[in-house]
Amino acid sequence: MDITQFKRRSEYEWQLEPSGKMRVPAVVYADETLLMQMDEKVGWQLRNVAALPGIVKAAYAMPDAHWGYGFPIGGVAAFDANAGGVVSGGGVGFDISCGVRSMLTGLKRADILPLQTRLANSLFKSIPAGLGSEGAIRLNEQDMTAMLAGGAKWALRRGWGEADDLLRIEEGGSVQDARPEQISEQARRRQRGEMGTLGSGNHYCEVQVVDEIFNPELARGFGIANDDVLVTVHCGSRGLGHQVGTEFLRSMALTAHSHGIDLPDRELACAPILSDLGQCYLGAMRAAINCALANRQILGHLLRETFAELFPEARLTLLFDVSHNTCKLEKHVIEHKSRELYIHRKGATRAFGPGHPQLPDSLRPFGQPVLIGGSMGTESWILAGMSGSEARSFSSACHGAGRSMSRIAASKHWSGRKLVDDLATRGILIRSPSLRGVAEEAPGAYKDARAVVDITEKAGLARKVARLKPLICIKG
Questions:
Q1: 18 phi/psi in degrees, rounded to 5
Q2: Nearest-5° angle of CA 358, CA 388, CA 320?
Q3: What is the C-alpha to C-alpha distance for residues 116 and 229, in angstroms, rounded to an integer?
Q4: Smallest Cα–Cα separation from 284: which of 246, 234, 330, 335?
Q5: How far apart are CA 283 and CA 332, in angstroms?
Q6: 97, 292 contact by CB (below 8 A)
């Protein structure tokens, strides 16, 4: 990206001044290197987001930002319903409530290594992965509606998980004001057999070891120490969420003109929050969030069962479960006044700081765990929300390293078979139904996660707690 078009506000904050139809500035958190590596389309998309009705303060891009559908991935924007604000399907994404769940195991690296291959094979057998993958759970119409309304709470009632899990899940495991009746028959049909599955692309289940602690106090607060083994899943609302996004984006594009919205890009299709369409989308999106929360809750249960077979002494407790593709109604202080805003986070993680009332008592002194995923051979990270990030980015942080190469280019550049073999020599076992999928998700197809995380901390968005390295990765 051409950095000369930006005004440098600080070492890690760059601003595009309003021009043309922009209503607010656009802000990117990065250093010079990361900013120059970003696609020019990131700046173009940020300008378009900044031109949407009712946007508040600025359109933001996290350090891992890259070009996406309408909104850049790594994009954050807030809208005020009472000022004509809009909700955008492109600002949430197709994989609604894609997110990360990390669980402590109580095991150390030395406990895992003798049974590493057996554990990899068992996880691959018990966690369905891949395009269109289905599991053993089949939902009838009544179950589907209850799941869409109840999220992880529904899953818990069905026997999947432990009651304490709900304390460590965003929104307590269930988003209110979901409207299951807005989920089409096609979306329901796509999801009927997909509960408790990973899906494809960058989704995974990974066994990880804590490789380095950066903040001992926060690490103790989160219950982690050097050499601890964690297990993490990264997935979302599967086919249902994609169908919701597809259907509503089409409706939003067709009706934008009737709502007086001049779309700078068709992919930015949106609707006024207070319109019938806007309310229908929000209700459907919340139901899809509940689908993702229920899906990850079931996967957590399957992980507990699998670990119990090989490690009876293991006690898998939930560290946190947080989404990074959502639109949430939150209270934020703007010019010394509290306002209710609809915060779009697309490829960006909510990162509430210490003392936030929505955090459970056990985490409130430390801030929210911010879970940053890696890509098979690269490290993952645990961060913590920082005081002050609300003013900088509506309490938002990065969600990963961010792609530096398209999936098509990656599949031409790398061999999936060779990647699996090379990673095995480094002690990382990969299991996947698709070698092409492995090539598409090659570690080299992503930016340097360490640089992204360093800038996230230096910019005041979230604080580094621990770095994790993979031992086993089940890849969709």
A1: -60, 135
A2: 40
A3: 12
A4: 246
A5: 22
A6: yes
Per-residue pLDDT of the chain in tens (476 residues, 90 and over written 9): 889 999 999 999 999 999 999 999 999 999 999 999 999 999 999 999 999 999 999 999 999 999 999 999 999 999 999 999 999 999 999 999 999 999 999 999 999 999 999 999 999 999 999 888 899 999 999 999 999 999 999 999 999 999 999 999 999 999 999 999 999 999 999 999 999 999 998 899 999 999 999 999 999 999 999 999 999 999 999 999 999 999 999 999 999 999 999 999 999 999 999 999 999 999 999 999 999 999 999 999 999 999 999 999 999 999 999 999 999 999 999 999 999 999 999 999 999 999 999 999 999 999 999 999 988 889 999 999 999 999 999 999 999 988 888 889 999 899 999 999 999 999 999 999 999 989 999 988 888 899 999 999 999 999 999 999 999 999 98
Domain ranges of the chain: 3-475
**83, 340 contact by CB (below 8 A):** no
Model confidence pTM above 0.90 = yes
Q: In the 8-state DSSP scheme, what is residue 461?
A: S
Q: Which helix (H) or strand (E) holds 436?
A: helix 435-440
399 is catalytic: yes
Vertex 27: Cα angle to 41 and 270 (nearest 5): 65
Topology of domain 3-475, CATH: tRNA-splicing ligase RtcB (3.90.1860)
Taking the CA atoms of residue 327, residue 194, residue 418 and residue 406 in that order, the dihedral angle to the nearest 10 degrees is: -30
Q: DSSP 3-state assignment of 58? A: strand
Q: How far apart are CA 302 and CA 308, in angstroms?
A: 10
Instruction: Report helix angle 276-310 to 116-126, nearest 10.
Output: 140
Which of 336, 344, 399, 413 is labelled catalytic?
Answer: 399
